[in-house]
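Quick start: what a row looks like.
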Amino acid sequence: MTWRPVPATSDQPADTEAIARARLRLRSGAELSLRDVRVRNDSVVGYAGDPRERRAFPVTDVASIERRQLSVGRTAGVVVGAVAVTTVVAFGLAMRDLGNSINAVPAPRVP
């Protein structure tokens, strides 16, 4: 997951879709994490804390809003890395087993 900026708030229509998780940076320097955030023409409204406490901020007090989204590049990197590590480990185990069977003493033949 990564944080991506949300477009300028003044361009948002009155009934926009809620942002599941957002990080607000206020002009005062404070940073807040909110859930179910709605950006309106004049305010940003969301829920903070464990008991759902509704918070609202005037758009003029908000310096930026970032939305939490899936990072395709990072996810692909993790998947490729995991496949590479799994392949190297499997190859190493196969080589160990092959080395053990090459050096093994054959079983005696029974007449």
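That is the whole record. The mean pLDDT is 82. Residues 44 and 57 are 5 Å apart (CA to CA).
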